[in-house]
Design a protein that fits this description.
Layout: E1 6-10, H1 20-32, E2 37-42, H2 47-55, E3 64-67, E4 72-77, E5 80-83, H3 85-91, H4 98-105, E6 112-113, E7 122-125, H5 131-144, E8 150-154, E9 158-162, H6 168-178, E10 186-190, H7 196-201, E11 205-207, H8 213-218, E12 225-226, H9 231-242, H10 244-247
Parallel strand pairs: 1-2, 1-10, 2-3, 10-11, 11-12
Antiparallel strand pairs: 3-4, 4-5, 6-7, 7-9, 8-9
Amino acid sequence: MEKKMIGIFSDIDGTMLGDEASLHELNVNLKKARDKIILVYASGRSFTECISAINDGGLIVPDAFIACTGAEIYINDKGVYNQDAGWEEIINTAGWDAEKIREALSTFVFLEPQAVTGKYKVSYRVPEALMEQAENLVKKELTSRNLNAKVIASHGIFIDVLPENCDKGAAAEYSAEKFFIDKNNAVVAGDSGNDADMFARFEHGIIVGNARVEMLSALVDTAHYRAKSNYASGVLEGLRHYFPAIFGGNP
């Protein structure tokens, strides 16, 4: 596979999407540098919903999608996205059982089950005022039943339950290796709690200006770049900080 200079692993909602004018400016710059970058979108969305972000949201076509908060990876092969079987093999741990997890959490009335997005992700919507309490109760219940899983809260209202070795960060790291991207030449970008794992695994990270408190709290002691600008403008600001030779330096 042809080597590219850098890898960009970015969340979609609240990071790339959120302001049309700033997305347009970012897209112009990404297209100019397209032969130098591997572009991967990492989202809590399902694969189908990720595709809609291109068709309806205006995102440019990426080299890969990390979907379902890291539970699925799809690689672009000449315009056709194929699910990466190797990643599924890695996260398909013996302790993962989606039906047992749903059963264990079925008595919590504050958890509103979300549409099924894949065999390795169980999702719930939670009243924002109850999020901290809900997250702690979910973790405690799963632990008491010896159900191996990772619990990720995001956007103040969502709780995702995934295999214990699965998150956006692990999937991004796997994807970087697959595309032969040195981690020193890679950058991640995000705004919410389900992005924090990417920042834990990569030295270069862009925290957009509109980042949620949940992520800022998780990254309080990190040296990642804190953009002043929101949404896609913040992503571009960070790219100019880390890769001035490609994106023209800070404006």
